[in-house]
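This is your field. Have a critical look at the following sequence-structure pair:

***
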Amino acid sequence: MTSFPCKSHDWAIHVGGTVAICVIVGLLNYLIRGGQLGYSMLYSFAIGVQISACISLLQKGLEWLLRRWRGTPSAPPNVWIGWGWMMPCILLGSVLGFTGGQWLADTLTGNRSTLLWNVADRRFALSFAFTLLVSLLASMFFFAVFKLNLAQLQQAQAERQAAEARLALLQSQLEPHMLFNTLAHLRVLIKLRPDEAQQMLDRLIDYLRATLQASRATEHALADEFERLSDYLALMQLRMGARLRVHLALPAGLGAITIPPLLLQPLVENAIKHGLEPHVQGGELRVSALREPGRLVLEVADSGAGLAGTSELGSVGAGFGLTQVRERLAQRYGDAATFTLQPQPGGGSIARIALPT
C-alpha cells in the first residue's frame, strides 16, 4: 500500500498491484489461520484498500503543505516527498487503514475483532506487524515503479524538446536556401528582362509575406502547404514561362491533415532544378496527395530530363534540400515515414513521401 503515482497510467499499476496484494494476503491468512476464504478475502480487501487510501491522502496532504512552505503552491502535484517524510505517512496510514478496514469488515460480517490498542494479544500483534510489513514492501515497489516511469517521462520530454529544436534549426536553414535560389534567378532576370523581373519581385514580396508567419509553426494544414507551393510556382512560371506547366492535385478530404511546413518545397525545387530546367522543352510538374490505408502519400513528379542512372540519383538525392526532407521526416516521424526518389519509366523523376495517419 502506497501513495498514488503522478502519471495517469500509473493508476492502473497501483490499483492492479493493490488488488493483487490483497488477494495474496487474503490467501495467506486463510492458509495459515483457517476459517472461511470469503471472510479472509473480505478482511484483506477492507484493510488493504483503506491503508492504501490513507497513505495516499496523507502523502498528498504533506506534499501540499511542503509546496506551500517552499513557496510553490502551484507546482505540479507529483512531487515525491522522499522516504524521510513517507515513513510517518506509511506508519500512520497503516494504523488508520487497519483500524478502519477492520471496523468495516466487522460491520459487514457481524464479527467482533480485537481492537488496535489491545496489543497484548499476540495473534493481533503479529497480524498488525505483518500488515505494516506488507505496507512497507508495497510502498517500496510502487516507489520504484514511480521513479522508473518518471525517468522515462523526463527522457521522452527531453528527446521531444531536442527534436523540436532540431526541426526549428532545419527549417531556419531551409528558408534562406529557397530565398537565395529565388534571388539568384531574379538577379539574372533583371539584366535580361527587367519588366518580368519587376513582376517576379512583386510576386516574391507577396510570397514572403504569406509564408513568413506560417513557416514559423511546427505544422500546418496540407491545404496551406499546397497554397504556399502555388505561390512559389507562380514565381517559377514567371521565369520559365510556358516551359513550366503546373498541376496541383489535392483531394478535398485531405486538406485538413497537418504536416510539417515547407515539407514539399525542396522536392519542387529539386524537380525544377534537375528535371525541368535542363530540359529544353521544359515539362509538367505534378504535385499530388492521396490517402492509402494507414498513411498519407505525397508525390512530386516531373516529366523533365529525368535521372540518368544510379550515380546521378545518388548525387541529386544527397543535395541540401532533400537531406532536409529526410532529416525532418526522421525527427518528426522516425521509421514510420518513408521518402523515395526514383526515375519514371516515361521520363522525368518522382519523389514520394509516405506519412502515418
Summary: The chain has two domains: 8-158, 193-356. The mean pLDDT is 76. The CA atoms of residues 6 and 78 lie 5 Å apart.
